[in-house]
# Entry
Amino acid sequence: MHDLKHTLYFETLLEEPYNDLVKQAVEDGDVALGYNCYYIPETLLNLPGSFSSRLRAPNCAATPIGDYYLTNRNCPYTRAILERAVEGSYNYLSALFGAEACSAMERMEEHFEQISPVKHDPFVTTIIDAPLKNDRAALVYYMNELRDKVLANLAKLGIDTSDDALLAAIEDHNEVSAIITEIGDFRKLDNPTVTGYEFHLIQLVSEVCPHRLILPYLRETLEEIRDRAPDAKPEFRARVILAGSEIDDPEFTKLLEFCGARVVGDRYCFGSVPSREQIEVREGESPFEAICRHYLETNLCARFMSEEKIDQRTDVLEAMVKEYKADGVVVESMKFCEFWSYEKVLASHILSEERGIPTCQIEKDYTLTGAGQLRTRFQAFVEGLEIKRLEKTGKGATS
# Structure
């Protein structure tokens, strides 16, 4: 397939948090609002006059400052974010909206307030207490947390939080989501016309760039993919769903695809599932309630340990395997991650032993260290998937 027109530009935008589009929006007077977790609804931060910026730490090779404050036996994502904050990478932000998703994330977010690494006036730091259930009581609590700690601070920053503004944010979210979803649907083809690496780039720029500035590029990329001719012969040997924690390095997806797997579905913290689903305002709901309900219902965080949420996570992966015609699932966890270390083992067991879906579980650092070991694991998994498919085809031919 020919290269997509904006691939190089998207790669450039992901090299630094303060990229050209973020810089342009800030210079235009828009308020930049940082967040780390799906528990903070991206839609609430994309109100008129503001934009969300999901924090990444690209090219962070070492974390001596993060290790000092958080210890080197803590989540490498949180250490990398704090490292880049002290280096000045997030000085464009007017706020960091955090969630008590895990103790490591909370400690990192607390340091944004305690040591003031972001040099911006004003700068707001707040952490919501996120619910562990998905029922009416949890929704009411979640709404109160977001109202008191997010909307109230947005108002202090001079951002319009009226119903009309929230409806405009929902419309913006739904447009971006519709484009990303349609692009992702091309991965369902027998010979997909978009690679997992390309889709990862597209999804990430939609999370870290102001929507009003990235939308023209997303629309143009969608039109290009609609007319894109696939390779005459598929270059992959197996189709996989990638699930896990903070996977915000497209080079990781590229490594997996280099080993012969086409990543046709993304179910990780920076992925399009569930972040690119449409928000519906139901009859009798305010826009704020609709946003909160949507994010609580669709949240697939491993922090939820209720039986219904565990079933929801594995049901979503099983449904994706069928929908995207995947041969297997790769489940990732980051080193020292207290929730995904359990989720990786639990999901792998349920998928492979109870639902008959081949699963590969791996652990990695935030940066792409240990690429050689990962490559060996991926190559062995792809070969195993090939053998299973050939055995299945052979049985079908003799029956």
About this structure: The domain at 7-160 is CATH 3.40.50.11890 (Rossmann fold). The beta strands are 31-35, 50-54, 95-99, 124-128, 238-244, 261-268, 328-334, 359-364.
